[in-house]
Specification:
Helices cover 45% and strands 14% of the residues. It is built from 13 helices and nine strands. Strands 4-5-3-6 form a four-stranded antiparallel sheet, covered by helices on one side. The chain is globular, with a radius of gyration of 20 Å. The relative contact order is 0.14.
Length: 304
């Protein structure tokens, strides 16, 4: 029924959609972009035909499924500032990072998600759900580049957010998640060391998603005695937020390679530009002078 609805609304023959479903995992172009911290990130860009079906699924279904309040990335009307504000005015900050975030989210997680929330799929046939999975997961995994991946990552991490939020509420700790970055803050000394251990125990034992793991090499504790950064924003000792030079450099780097950015990355870039210009209106002029008016405007608006 869902596939039939898609065919009708997109004015596409059912056979065309069926062929795309069967070949979906092969409908991607792979390329590499440089990470800000060094190394390369693989981007898998879906073909225009596949992307059209993914965008339809995103608008009609995925975007309507519940996302936990602690998740601050990939949400309309939210920016990195909203993520940072949750930790404003605290003394101690813990950041934890998850390894291979998108590839760790799998079709098996989606199947378990459907089984745990059948009310979201009551109009779906088995064929509909199988087709959905093939159209949104590449060889069984989420990819950086598909327009559906950011939103699916948020809905599949709902139970993760519930678990970590519960751990934090018991100890009066603030918790937010920005994609694969976990942030915890408090005014009580020593509490975040306990939180770190509890999080490391909780994540591998989740049923959904089942394959996420903490990248312990990126775990960072900080306090007012040193620089505290949340998604590139500096938390000042006066309780206010500031734009760091590192964030500005990162934004300029992203604008430079705008053409190669995935939709989710362009959306995040637009949010960062909006935040920075709120503090420094002249920043937009520097982007225009360096990259030209057209490129700067596309970056500001989140367009390719």
């Amino acid at each position: 029924m869902i596939m039939e609805q898609m065919a009708k609304e997109l004015s596409l023959p059912a056979g065309h959609i069926a062929r795309l479903v069967k070949t979906a995992s092969h409908q991607y172009k792979e390329y590499q972009i440089s990470k800000r911290g060094g190394g390369q990130r693989t981007i898998l860009q879906p073909s225009r035909r596949l992307k059209a079906l993914q965008k339809w699924l995103l608008a009609n279904f995925i975007a309507t499924w519940p996302v936990h309040e602690s998740a601050t990335a990939y949400r309309k009307g939210r920016t990195i500032l909203d993520n940072a504000k949750a930790h404003q005015g605290t003394r101690f900050l813990l950041r934890m990072d998850m390894s291979e975030f998108f590839p760790s989210l799998t079709i098996e997680d989606m199947i378990a998600y459907k089984a745990s929330r059948p009310h979201l799929f009551k109009e779906w046939t088995g064929h509909d759900f199988a087709s959905f999975c093939m159209l949104t997961f590449r060889f069984g995994h989420l990819t950086i580049g598909a327009p559906t991946s950011p939103a699916i990552s948020n809905i599949l991490c709902f139970d993760l957010d519930v678990a970590l939020d519960g751990i934090c509420r018991r100890r009066s700790v603030n918790y937010t998640r920005y994609a694969d970055d976990l942030f915890f803050s408090t005014n009580e000394e020593g509490v975040l060391a306990t939180i770190e251990q509890e999080v490391k125990q909780a994540v591998p034992n989740l049923a959904i998603p089942s394959k996420l793991r903490i990248n312990e090499t990126k775990t960072r504790h900080s306090s007012k005695r040193g620089a505290r950064r949340v998604t590139g924003i500096v938390l000042g000792s006066d309780g206010k937020t500031y734009v760091g030079r590192k964030l500005k450099r990162g934004v300029r780097s992203q604008v430079h390679k705008l053409e190669s950015l995935a939709p989710a990355e362009r959306s995040r870039l637009a949010g960062m530009i909006a935040y920075i210009t709120g503090f420094d209106p002249g920043f937009m002029n520097t982007l225009i002078r360096k990259y030209g008016h057209a490129t700067a405007m596309r970056a500001r608006d989140g367009r390719p």
